[in-house]
Amino acid sequence: MPARDHRPKGIWRVTDIRAVDWANGPEAGMVLLDQTLLPGEERFVVCATVDSVVDAIERLVVRGAPALGAAGAFGVAVAVGEGERRGWTDVELRTQVQRIRDSRPTAVNLAWGVDRAAARIGAGLDAVIAEGRALADEDRAANRALSRHGADWILDALTERASDGPVRVLTHCNAGALATTGWGTALGVVHELHDRGVLGRVYADETRPLLQGARLTAWELARLGIDHVVQVDSAAASTILGGNVDVAVVGADRIAANGDAANKIGTLGVALACADAGIPFVVAAPTSTVDVATASGADIRIELRDGHEVVSWAGSATAPATTTGFNPAFDVTPARLISAIVTEVGVETPGDGSNTIFRATGP
Q1: Which of 93, 107, 145, 275 would suit a FRET pair with 312, their CA atoms being 20 to 30 Å apart?
Q2: pTM of the model
Q3: Is 205 one of the annotated active-site residues of the chain?
Q4: What would you report as the CA-atom Rg of the chain, rounded to the nearest whole angstrom?
C-alpha cells in the first residue's frame, strides 16, 4: 500500500505514527492503522468505498476524537472518488457523506471533519483531499501546543501543592498519537512531561470493554520508554486515594460550552476519586472537540454499543448465554469535577459548570 511504513516492525517513534492518512496512486483511499489488531499486529487497511469507511469507524479500526475528525474529512474524499466511479448524483453523494457523519454520534470531531471537507466538494476531489491533509496538519500542531500548555499547568499546580519529585500520572483510555493525527492530547501531555525529564510512573487504566488502555496506550508508552503499569479500571480509585498518583490526565470526545466533558466510559469514576483525593483532574483536547452548540453535558448523546462487547472477548463468551451486556461507550464528567481543560490556545478552569466558558471564538 502506498502509505504503508515499510520499516521493521516495533521500532516506530510515536511521533511517526499516522493512524489516519491518505494514499494516492492505484490504491487511492484513506489509509488506517487497524487499531483492533494492536498490539499483536501492525496492519494498514485502505478504505476506498463509503461502506469500508463506515465499517472502519463503527468497528473502531480508527477511534479517538481528533483521529475521527481526520477520518471524517478523508472519508468525504472517499465518497467523492466513489461517486465519480459510480456516477452518483449530488443527492446520492450527500446521502453517502451523511452516512459517514452519523457513524458515531458522541465524538463531535467526526461531524466537524465531515462538514469541513464536504464544504469543498464543489471544488473537486483534489480540493477535498487537500482539506483533509490541512486538517491533519493543524491537529498535529494543536496537539503539540496543548501538550506544552498542559505540562506547564500541571507543574505549576503541583508546585502550589508543595509536591516535588517525578510527576506520577493516571490516564484512562487512549488519547495518544493513535487517537489523533500525531503526537496525542492527554498522552501528548504525558509525552511532554517525559521530554522535560519530570515524569514518573504512568498508571494506564485497561479501559473496558475493548482495552484501549492496555492495548493502545501501553503500546505507545512502551515505544516512548516510559515507566508504566496497566491496571484494571476498578483499581483506579484505590490507586488515586492511596497516594500513588499526582494528577489524572484524560482526553475528551466532546466538551460542552460549560466545560462538561464526555470521554470513554469510566472517566467519571476517575474524576470523582481525584476530587476526593484533592488532586488535579485534567482534560486535554483540541478546540475542535469543543461543541459550543451543546450547552452542557446533559445535551450530549451517549453512544450505546453492542452489548456483546461486554459479555464476550475474542469470540468467546465471558458471561452466561442468557446475559445481555449494557455498553455505553462514554460518560460525562461534570465541569465541577474538572480542574483544568487544556486546549492549543491555553487553559480554562471551568468552575461549577454554571457558566458558559467556551464560545464560538474559542476559550
Answers
A1: 107
A2: 0.91
A3: no
A4: 20
